[in-house]
């Protein structure tokens, strides 16, 4: 009985989290599949788990991308052509080797969903304020020591995941207050850091 209650609680919590996530119903293709189609008809490319250290140059011909999955690679930078993805709404860069937010992301004004979890990012810089359509930001399990105050300008955010890093109580309070209309998730803070 106890395990049923725990599972039920997990489902309820999970449902409240998942209800916050913008729906990604884009059809995704591998790069091999996408290259056999007309570039203008491809809206999603999946390059998950490809062992990539850089993004293939041939990706730049897909100007109508709305979704790009690059999870679980070895990326640490984005190429210059990345800024031309001016219709991109869903970007998955989790489980890579980023140590900072790539500045190219801040040119993607249509971005609604950004997953940068499980990297080694130490700061959220001022450029983040350019993402005026961003609704969901997952930066779980990074190494944050600094978040620029301009981050608070993104009042359209509905969900932010900061879990996986221990923050000071004052830090957690500051950023929870900064987003009164969003679900902001933190691990338990530590008063030892204040």
Automatic annotation (TrEMBL):
<protein>
    <recommendedName>
        <fullName>Leucine-rich repeat domain-containing protein</fullName>
    </recommendedName>
</protein>
<keyword id="KW-0677">Repeat</keyword>
<dbReference type="InterPro" id="IPR050216">
    <property type="entry name" value="LRR_domain-containing"/>
</dbReference>
<dbReference type="InterPro" id="IPR001611">
    <property type="entry name" value="Leu-rich_rpt"/>
</dbReference>
<dbReference type="GO" id="GO:0005737">
    <property type="term" value="C:cytoplasm"/>
</dbReference>
<dbReference type="Pfam" id="PF13855">
    <property type="entry name" value="LRR_8"/>
</dbReference>
<keyword id="KW-0433">Leucine-rich repeat</keyword>
<dbReference type="InterPro" id="IPR003591">
    <property type="entry name" value="Leu-rich_rpt_typical-subtyp"/>
</dbReference>
<dbReference type="InterPro" id="IPR032675">
    <property type="entry name" value="LRR_dom_sf"/>
</dbReference>
